[in-house]
Amino acid sequence: MHANAANRLLHHYRATARDLPWRARPGEPAPDPYRVWLSEVMLQQTTVAAVTPRFLRFVERWPTVEALAGAADEDILGEWAGLGYYARARNLIACARAVAVRGGFPETEEELRKLPGLGAYTAAAVAAIAFRQQAVVIDTNVERVVARLFALTAKTDVRAAAEAFWPPEHSGDFAQALMDLGATICRPKSSACSACPLLPDCKAAALGTPEAFPAKAAKKAKPHRFGVAWWSRHGEAVRLVRRPPKGMLGGMAALPGPEWCSEQPAANPIAIVRHEFTHFTLDLLIVPADHDEGWWQPLAELAKVGLPSLYRKAVDAALAAEREPRLAA
Ligand code: SF4
Questions:
Q1: What is the pLDDT of residues 230-239, one digit of tens each?
Q2: Is 40 one of the annotated active-site residues of the chain?
Q3: Do 288 and 239 contact (CB within 8 A), yes or no?
Q4: Atom of ligand 1 at shortest distance to CA of 192?
Q5: 272 & 176 share domain
Q6: pLDDT digit string (tens) for 237-265?
Q7: 183 CB near ligand 1 (under 6 Å)
């Protein structure tokens, strides 16, 4: 049954593969490993729709891994702004430089895994898709499809089931076929089983409860943290600093301010911005103050420094508060 199901899925993929700028069409030569790696890093925690225009800008500006390796950190972090999860951008820089030094990407999952900041998932994806190596690639879409196909409640059981089912000679296409199926048919909340090539073999569909697989972990309440951002204006410019290289939003341009903490600070803000990070919720209090670290950034040229979403929202809230002080206070 497994071989037939895998063949049906590959056949379906060849007819319906999504056209994405980092992919090769089924049957074409393998895609550039630089583009596969860059897209996989960008797609972690971010949707295809959000990544596609950003990916195209990145490869237009830095068409090769060597070009990216030679770029200034600030330029790369600025181009990454708004994509979130900034540790990814810092890892991207470290990895690009290591690849440039060694003269190109290694081809095996094991060697790829040795590159700085390149995790197990990305190593498997680059090996399978760009180098046509045998590798089992499990992202959240693949995990969901395999869990449903075998009616597995525990995500920890998915890898062994996937390995038994994975055709070694078509690892890259098979991974992309499962990713596409998870994105378009075997969706988290509304699976379109009648259009699915795996339907004859699918245990979750036979049970009539596809959405029950895999079981969802109970959501933990998120902790709450607080921060202060100093709002320092000089004409049509605002004071910005660069955050320390390690930690949240490391290396990104930001409004100045002390470390975030779990106690609400005693301050008199003109506005408060709430921002959801993966592991906590932050209330950022925007407080007028004179500040002399960093640099004056013209407000008309904020886009050039690539502010992360939190600080972009903070600047907008502060400007709105200046226009309508009583409403924003
Ligand atoms: S039959 Fe339904 S639940 Fe099973 S893999 Fe296909 S879309 Fe998912």
A1: 999 999 999 9
A2: yes
A3: no
A4: 7
A5: no
A6: 999 999 998 889 999 999 999 999 999 88
A7: no
